[in-house]
Amino acid sequence: MESGDSNPEALGLYMAESLNKYRILYCHMVEPRINPASEKRETPHGLLPMRKAFRGTFLVVGGYDKEEGNNAIAKNRADLVVYGRHFLANPDLPWRFKLNAPLNKYNRDTFYTPDPVVGYTDYPFLEDTS
């Protein structure tokens, strides 16, 4: 939340390499933030040096859509792609991906609210068309 480092790539690389010493099973990193106006990453593939340095399972997150996620796996930029906001707004996300169905838009105003229901359990599932 608005924290930063003077050299984030060097710090990330150091951390990824250091985790190897402890045989950590996985490393979950956030791709550099997306531009909220365009919803696209300003620095695509910014985690590649950390991916190459870490010897365990490498998870990435950061605004991936289905195509970008599949490309990240196919091009060995990650072992797993995490879909936080998209999964929150689409409780049936794997099914939607399989069908190439449209996604529900997430509502940032309901993230991290004290209401335990609004925004976490009220997104609609695809209607059953079978």
UniProtKB/TrEMBL annotation:
Annotated InterPro entries: OxRdtase_FMN_N, Oye-like
Molecular-function annotations in GO: FMN binding; oxidoreductase activity
Cofactor: FMN
Residue ranges of every copy of the NADH:flavin oxidoreductase/NADH oxidase N-terminal domain listed in the record: 23-103
Protein keywords: Flavoprotein, FMN, NADP
Annotated PANTHER family: NADH OXIDOREDUCTASE-RELATED, NADPH DEHYDROGENASE 2-RELATED
Protein name: NADH:flavin oxidoreductase/NADH oxidase N-terminal domain-containing protein
